[in-house]
Design a protein that fits this description.
about 260 residues; Diaminopimelate Epimerase, Chain A, domain 1; 18-stranded mixed β-sheet; about 40% strand
């Protein structure tokens, strides 16, 4: 099985969010995929399988199968074009647990078409503020995550949460966000998902399916730029189109190899 190590939401190696992209020749069960993901230890391991005229896509963290994964989808599309599986002017269409997701190339960027997952105001769950060691300005709940707005970007950068306490919060993850302090982006964020086996994610595409509508309402416009603060960091462009979110980023292949024991 061909395996590609791709850094997503970056144009440089060793930045952005790593994903392992595995090209399957036949069907494999979820237990086998989870074993591979646990072995490769990437934040997301992506399995792509041709099915008729399309491709099936599944994502796994080292701990669980993921419902939605932006950087893994971006990495898979990048591999499809780089290997010639698709021509550069041909959209990548993937059948997933969240319906059909598409990706296109646009002026050196990869644009993903994802479902919006807007938040609704929510009462903070017990222990959330204590786990973050921060005072929320706002708390919301999306389909997958809690969304916490803090006062400013300085508070986002300084955050040192109690990961064990966050793991006890009943949610996929916790998104923490604020307006950006400078002109390099409109808003910033960090994302913690210890229950999914990822203490802090480097660059989280699916979290921006919630962040994009949240900040679109506050800025009063549909096109925004975003920066995620993590040790590797990453940037992306986001746009709201009805109940869909367009996430744009870049990707670079770091390694290619083969899984021998199939």
């Amino acid at each position: 099985m061909k395996v590609f190590h791709v850094d997503a939401f970056t144009s440089e190696m060793f930045a952005g969010n790593p994903a392992a992209v595995c090209l399957l020749d036949d069907s494999r069960d979820a237990d086998w995929m989870q074993h591979v993901a646990r072995e490769l230890r990437a934040p997301a391991t992506v399995f792509v399988r041709r099915t008729g005229d399309g491709r099936q896509l599944r994502w796994f963290s080292p701990a669980v199968e993921l419902e939605l994964c932006g950087h893994g989808t971006l990495a898979a599309a990048h591999v499809m074009w780089e290997t010639g599986e698709l021509s550069s002017n041909e959209p990548a269409r993937f059948q997933t647990r969240n319906g059909t997701l598409t990706a296109v190339t646009n002026d050196g960027w990869i644009e993903l078409d994802f479902p919006a997952t807007p938040d609704v105001p929510a009462s903070p769950p017990a222990g959330l503020a204590e786990a973050l060691h921060a005072t929320p300005k706002y708390v919301g709940r999306s389909r997958f995550d809690y969304l916490v707005e803090l006062e400013d970007e300085r508070a986002i950068r300084a955050l040192q949460p109690d990961i064990a306490a966050l793991r006890a919060i009943p949610t996929r993850g916790v998104i923490v966000t604020s307006r950006a302090d400078d002109g390099r982006a409109d808003f910033v964020s960090r994302f913690f998902a210890p229950s999914a086996g990822i203490d802090e994610d480097h660059v989280t595409g699916s979290a921006h399916c919630c962040l994009a509508p949240f900040w679109s309402r506050r800025f009063g416009r549909t096109r925004l730029s975003a920066r995620q603060h993590s040790p590797r960091g990453g940037v992306r462009k986001v746009a709201i189109e009805g109940d869909r979110v367009r996430l744009a980023g870049q990707a670079v292949t770091v390694m290619r190899g083969e899984l021998m024991a199939c």
